[in-house]
Design brief:
- By secondary structure, the chain is α+β, with helices and mostly antiparallel strands.
- Bound molecules: zinc ion.
- Zinc ion binds next to loops.
- Zinc ion (ZN) binds next to loops.
Length: 167
Amino acid sequence: MIINNVPMKGLTSEEYEKAIKISWKPQLQYAWDNGIGIGKYLASLKEGMILAAYCQKCGRIMLPARAFCEMCWRPTDRYVTVKDTGVVNTYAICHINWDASRLKPDEPRHIPAVIEIDGASQGQGILHILGNVEPSNVKIGMKVKAVWKPAAERTGSITDIRFFEPY
Ligand SMILES: [Zn+2]
């Protein structure tokens, strides 16, 4: 190759790799701050309750609990406990695992769903999974109830609820 009348010698693969690659062993440490609203929400899950936030300006009971109403652009006024029951707002039947590998024909399907929780305002729900139900029996509007981990196993995570099942 000739550039500006100067013959250019191509790089060998080793030279090319040396020029563009660096090796670096990262030592990354993460700390995640849940914030006030989500922190209270997660703490309530550890206690076997679902916490929402109330905004007195718009009257919404928002889920998950949050410290700020994004509609009114103001802090929420108080936290309220909602039920651990609700209805399926939408769902999917997954034939693949979380890592995108295919499920075998005899493996149970994953059924992620948005569940509108009783006691929260319409449209306020959480994303979770459905269990103890055949995929063909899942319907939008189906009533479901949380199946909690035993108290001693809860960690303050959304997985403190194992899944939601029909009731
Ligand atoms: Zn509001």
